[in-house]
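Notes from the 1:1 (GR / supervisor)

We went over the backlog. Supervisor wanted to see one worked example end to end before approving the batch request, so GR pasted a single chain during the call. The sequence is below; no edits were made to it. Supervisor asked that the structure be written out right there so they could see what the output format looks like.
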Amino acid sequence: MNKRMISCTLAILMLLMSMAVPVLAAEEAQKVEVPVEVTFEGTPASADTVTIQLTAQTEGAPLPEGGSDGVYQETINGSGSITLVLEFTEVGVYSYTIKQLPGSDSQATYDKTEYKLTVFVTKNEDGTIGTTTVLENDKEEKLATASFHNVYPAAVEEILPARLDPPVKKLVVSANGVIPAASPFVFAMVPADKSYPMPDNREATRDPATGGLYMTQYGPGEYEFGWMYFDENDVGNTYTYRIYEVSGSDGRYRYDAMLYTMTVVVSLEGNQVVLDVTYQDQTGKNVDEAVFTNFFQNTVVPPPTPPTPPDRPTPPTPSIPTPRTGDNTNLGIWIGLLVISAVGILVAVLLWKRRKQTEQG
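Structure output shown during the call:
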């Protein structure tokens, strides 16, 4: 009898306990859907696949169909999306993590974000259950979708460099005398910063303190400082340089004191480095190139001839008459008389001689 009473009591207790646990029928299970999106930037070297992994942090938490041991995985080929479906039948708080397992491209950058998923399952007054889903990224920002953005390296296109050979022009004007052909002239090119690109001119002298280059040339003409090269590392930069002539020691020259500024703006068009080069003189005027004009003169300089006023013809040189030294009006008559007199004297002498010879004979 006592055994029967004990058995009945246990049965009643088990019934009460079973009633206390809110177990719902299968058709009353509450579904939770969590969208997951995968995107790729760039083009992979080969077909790539990533894996989405859902891991239950709460023991016994339900998993999508196919999951086991607290882990569910699903693969995605390239860009795409999936939906993680969870079914809950018991009230409680369930925690998960969602992350992406990287693909096989060693050059790609895979998204390492790890999302935290929390599902709150509660019992409603009518005996059904309700769910509240909270999805957060690693910055604790609440989101509706777990998104993973992966980046493939862009195909490297060869960037073609640009080059520049800055010119200078030397002009010499002579006040008098012949211009020496071998006179040396020194031209300077000094960067605003010594780290700037400079010409590849091994014959020039360089100043390690300023990075300046000093080039010596002989006589008038056009010269170049040497090739300067600009590559992709210079794109977006602006470089400025001072160009001037160094005054020499030859006292026969008056050296040009003009100071030019060369500005080089480096940009990229497609895969070609492009240069925008401008020159300005010290007054701020834009010019085509750096031109230096020197004036040459001998030691002795005659006084300069005043220039002719413009739009006025040069006046003719006045004629100066020859001064008179005597009167030559009857010169012909006098010469005739002298000739006649001479002939008369000669005839008289001949007649006198003939008469003398007759008398002696």
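Supervisor's comment: Confidence is low (pLDDT under 50) at residues 10-27, 300-329.
Batch request approved.
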